[in-house]
Amino acid sequence: MGRIVLVTGGARSGKSVFAETLAARHGERVAYVATATAGDAEMADRIARHRVRRPAAWSTLETPLDILASLAAVDSGIEVVLVDCLAVWAANRLLTLGEPAEDGWWDRVGALERVLTEELGLVVTTARDASWELIVVTNEVGFGVVPPTELGRAYRDLLGRLNQVVAARANDVFLVVAGFAVEITRLATERPRG
């Protein structure tokens, strides 16, 4: 049965570096599932820095919208699948819905949450049945101020609930703050219901 690890934290907290370190410790054959796209120069630079950090032997699957399909494409013999990151994947999907001012936008957000929750359930089931370990990186976006826009609030709420879905079924959950990882599952008094 495949293990599932969730790594969360704020922007620039060190969560990707921590997840990459975990992946390297748990296997030599790693598949890196990248959800980001280079929509502008700053994002292209971030992606380039991530690529440089990864060992050349790791395979990379670029999938901004369909994590489940990328898992189906994982080569046999892979020991760890690292998804970086759930937050970008959720944003990519949310941005396909159009503008918040459009009629029915909030209904589409609710429908998207149901679809993404179902997809994450299938991702978890796939990982449980696999011979590889799954490490998922995400962001904690609810620690800051309430976003001033409808899109920002919808994203914060959507990602917070999706994080709970994965955390509820993960073997281990780590919170990374200022480069330090704390194992939340050991400290928790109760597991979330996902």
Write up this protein:
The chain has helices at 15-26, 41-53, 67-72, 86-94, 105-129, 150-169, 184-187, and strands at 4-9, 30-34, 59-62, 80-84, 133-137, 172-177, 180-183. Helix 2 links the parallel strand 2 (30-34) and strand 3 (59-62). The chain has a seven-stranded mixed sheet with strand order 3-2-4-5-1-6-7, sandwiched between helices. The protein is of the alpha/beta class and 194 residues long. It is globular and about 50 Å long. The two termini are 19 Å apart. The protein has one domain (4-169, 178-187): Rossmann fold. Helix 4 (86-94) packs across helix 6 (150-169). It is 46% helix and 18% strand.
Blueprint of the fold:
Elements: E1 4-9, H1 15-26, E2 30-34, H2 41-53, E3 59-62, H3 67-72, E4 80-84, H4 86-94, H5 105-129, E5 133-137, H6 150-169, E6 172-177, E7 180-183, H7 184-187
Helix pairs in contact: 4-6, 5-6
